[in-house]
Write a structure and sequence with these properties.
This protein is α/β, with parallel strands linked by helices and 183 residues long. The protein has a single domain (15-166), classed as Glutaredoxin, CATH 3.40.30. Helices cover 36% and strands 17% of the residues.
Amino acid sequence: MHCAKSCTSLKRKVQHKVKIGDKVANFTLKDQDGNPQNLTELLKGGPLVLFFYPAAMTTGCTKESCHFRDLKAEFEELGIQRVGISMDKVDKQKQFSDTHGFDYPLLSDEDGSVAESFGVKRSIGILRTKRQTFVIDTDSIVLAIFKSEFNMNSHAEDALDFFRSAGADRTKPTQPPEDPFNS
């Protein structure tokens, strides 16, 4: 009986993991202003780079998010949207955005359901999500995934490089080599 309970609880902890070529399920989360943001609606504005970060107002996440902000012109030139997401509450996302002047939505995934559906939710530790970025085309298909826990500038740069190299043909999914420090 003890094993049955252990096996059942283990099954509940198994996460889904979005892979290149997968169609992302629609979701709605509140942004830093408390407004609901729906993935399907966001994608009407063009493809997007959805970057998960562990915690607002921390050094690494600030560096990463500011880099996405600072590359605004490059993303706009390519017609690409930027959207950040973490498990922080709306008011923390608001503070983060206001402090650093972010010009893109920061979504609040308080219960971690979206992070879990993407396979980036951690089961233990104070950093509740992995640092991963997903390039999503207007048809909700994942075109690329970038992973690096320690190189905060790589996600924005890799996303731009992906779109620059893919040109008009974004239908060829790609995945860069794994970061050896990423779990």
